[in-house]
C-alpha cells in the first residue's frame, strides 16, 4: 500500500518505519528541510532503540523515503497519516495549528479518494474539524474519509509497542473505511477495536489520564506511607497482585513527565471544561504530580541545609530511562531549584546530556560518569532510574563522595543494602535511613 506519513517526529518516524517494515511503500513528509536532509543522509533526529536500524534497512530496500513535498506524496498515496505535533497552549488547550495547516495542504493537494488518518493525539472532535478544513480547501470536490487511529507507543519501547500493541483502535465513520486500516494492520495480528471517530479520540485521552491517575494515586499513598512508617514498595506489590488493579504504573517516585501525560491530562481537563464538565478528579492528579519534586526537594533541604555550601550530584536527567527526551523531565525542576538555592550541581546521564544542555541552568556542571559526578558531593540525588544506575558499584560511589547521603527519587536501590553500605538513604514512601 502507498502510505504518506506527515510529520517526522517521534510518532511519524516510528509509524513510517514499521509500516515500511511490513512491506508498504512509505514516504514520510516533513516541512523542516534540514530535518529531511538529515534523515535522507541516514541520521535520526531522535534516540529510540532499534529505530535507526529499522529506518536504514527500509531505506536501503527502497520502501521508505523522506521528502518535503506534501502535495506530490498525497497524490500518490492511498492513506495519509497526520502525525504532526500537538503542543499545549498555556491554558492547557491543545494547539491544533500544525494539524490544521496539514489538513489545508491535503485538501488543496488531493485529486482522488484518500483516507486521512489522525495519528497525532488530538482532542475529541478533531476528526470532524479536520474533515471540515480539508473540505473547505479542496480545489474540486473529491470524496475522502477521516479516521482516528491513536498511537499508544512509549518512548524507549516505541518499536515494540508499535509492532505488538495491546490493541489497535480504529475510529472510522463507516465499516468500509475501517476495513482499509484493518487490512494495513492485519499482519501485526493484534486485537483491533473499531469505534466511531470521537470515541477513538476519547480512548486515547482517557487511557493516558487513567495511567497518570494510577501514578498520582500511588504517589499520594507514598506520602501517607512516609508519615505512617509503611513501605510503599511493599504496598504496591500487595495492591498490584489484585488482578483488577495490576502492578503496571504503580511505581511511586518523582511523578510523571514526558511529552504526553502532562499535556494530555491538561488537555482533557480543558476539553471537559469546554463541554461543561469540571474534571476535579483529574485536576487532583495533576496537583499531586506537581507536588512530587517540591516534596523531594524539601527532603534534600532538610538533610543538607544550608544548600549554598553543598555540592550535589544528579544521576539521570531524561524524563524516564532509555530516552534522551528532556521534555517535562523532573530533573529540570530539581536542578533549577538547587541552583537557585546556591548549591553546586554536577550531573550525569547516559544519553540525555546534549539535550539537557539546552534546557538546564548554565551553572550546571556535566560529568562523564556517575562516579565523576559524585566526586566530592555532599549528596547524590537519583532522578531517572537508568538500568546502569541499578548496577553501580555503590562502594565506589560512597568512596568518592564527601559524605555518603543518597536521595533516591525512584526507589531504585534496596534500603537494606544501602544501610549495610553505610549510606544515609532517603527514598520515596519508605522510612529514611539515617546514620547512627
Ligand atoms: C506515554 C504512554 O504510556 C503512551 O501510551 C502514550 O502514547 C504516550 O505517553 P511515554 O510518555 O513514553 O508514554 O512514557 P511512559 O513510559 O508511559 O511514562 C510516563 C511517565 O510516567 C514517566 O515520567 C515515568 O517516569 C512515569 N511513571 C511511569 C511513573 O512515575 N511510575 C510508573 O509506575 C510508570
Mean pLDDT: 96
What top-tier CATH class of the largest domain fits best?
Alpha Beta
Low-confidence stretches: none
Number of separate domains: 3
Instruction: State the CATH superfamily name of the largest domain.
Output: NAD(P)-binding Rossmann-like Domain
Tertiary shape: elongated
Strand content: 5-15%
Which topology of the largest domain does CATH recognise? Rossmann fold
Ligands bound here? Answer: uridine-5'-diphosphate-xylopyranose
Strand order of the biggest β-sheet = 3-2-1-4-5-6
Largest beta-sheet characterization:
6 strands, parallel
CATH architecture heading of the largest domain: 3-Layer(aba) Sandwich
What's the helix count?
Answer: 18
The end-to-end distance, rounded to whole angstroms, is 68 Å
Helix content: 40-55%
State the secondary-structure class.
alpha/beta
Computed over alpha carbons, the radius of gyration is 24 Å
Structure summary:
The chain has 18 helices and 14 strands. The chain has 436 residues and is an alpha/beta fold.
